[in-house]
Amino acid sequence: MSDKDLEARHLETLDRDLGRFSNLEIAAAYIARPLVAPGIALVFIVLAGLAAAFLLGQTGAAPIVVAAAVFGAYMALNIGANDVANNMGPAVGANALSMGGAIAIAAVFESAGALIAGGDVVSTVAKGIVAPETLASPAVFIWAMMAALLASALWVNLATWIGAPVSTTHAVVGGVMGAGIAAAGFGAVNWSQMVAIAASWVISPVLGGAIAAAVLWFIETRIIFQKDKLAAARVWVPILVGIMAGAFATYLVMKGLKQLVHVSLGAALVLGLAAGLGTWLLMIPVTRRQSRGLENRNKSLKVLFGIPLVVSAALLSFAHGANDVANAVGPLAAIVQTAQTGSIGAEVSIPVWVMLIGAFGISFGLCLFGPKLIRMVGSQITKLNPMRAYCVALSAAITVILASALGLPVSSTHIAVGAVFGVGFFREWDAERRLRLARMAVPEAERIPADERRRRKLVRRSHVLTIGAAWVITVPAAALLSAALFLILRLMPG
């Protein structure tokens, strides 16, 4: 064999070996890719624990506070992965926002809401579910809050994994209830409050869905099905955006800024009315300018609803950050205060570093794990466009205002997802109604078979069942898990 042949064989062998190494690198990268997000999340959790150790290292309570900070960071990550999808999902599903844009806006406004208008004071045991005086000692109280925090985080994590948007506040409430029962028996629980929370499982989605369906019906009859759609839009879009601005102004004053300024419901409504009128007047020339050169078709209407939809998603995120983050980190703040003072207080201030854990944890959780639930809410339950997504956003603001006026406990998660269901079921009903009218003039042979009509349903029933079941079992599942964790934690030394 000549030298050239030997060299050719060596080169061929080298190419094969390099090819194997290349395939190995590709396979390793493919396997490692799913581990990147959990790895970053783990780093954040560790940093939260180290920050707590550094800030409170001079006190004897440091170990328990570090553990609580780790659990709190884990909970905040899960809020970002699950709860925030309800605010951004409709805008992404309607193609008014890209996934990256939605994540960026939500991260900024959720953090701003938590840090600027987050709760200065919260009940130590999640809205009075368990009376602190029923717990035997500060140590028992700390273990109960630790169990509640970890149990609610684990449950929300599981719900995110199966693709079910759930209420993190309800998970915290269930966790506190379960730990309270394990620590002091059934008499420690405020059952009237629990009945009100259970009622919100029905009130929230039904009210949100009904309002969203009513708004969509109005948009269809006044704009979409008009002969001159653009002329109708020039009249009604400024009014609708004004209503949205007024509703969100009232919503933010009542829910998002309640810790900065105390405003009564009447004053909030007056401020909302002023904001709505101002926005209506401002939007009249804006809508006319936007509608110039557009064709008289439904696709053109999407342009007019795009910017209001993006703004509404940002405002919902701000209010969510201000209102719900404090509920999630409340148990952590209660642990910190009790560990430092050695006594159980009726109220507890949330330290800045605890709010930072909540704010940054939500942002990291949203960026790392949020897209799954955003797609679920935005496009997998029913198909959304900017008009339908606008109905969901407006319904969320109006429903919270109505519930606050009536004193009804509601869940922002249940409202938003219920509104998506309401839009989808209304479209099904309206399509079936129009089909019945059309069948009156269609021969029997040309009618669509019943099986085919069922196949064309506009709301995916599998998601309805999955999400509904997750809502119903959130409180009892978190309670059972929390009770078990409390009994385990009490066995630990120290």
From TrEMBL:
Pfam families in the record: PHO4 (PF01384)
Intracellular or extracellular location(s): Membrane
InterPro entries the UniProt entry points to: Phos_transporter
Keywords, in A-Z order: Membrane, Phosphate transport, Transmembrane, Transmembrane helix, Transport
Top-level taxon: Bacteria
Membrane disposition: Multi-pass membrane protein
Annotated transmembrane regions: 35-55, 61-80, 92-116, 136-158, 170-189, 195-219, 231-254, 260-282, 303-322, 350-369, 389-406, 464-489
Family: Belongs to the inorganic phosphate transporter (PiT) (TC 2.A.20) family.
PANTHER family: PHOSPHATE TRANSPORTER
Name of the protein: Phosphate transporter
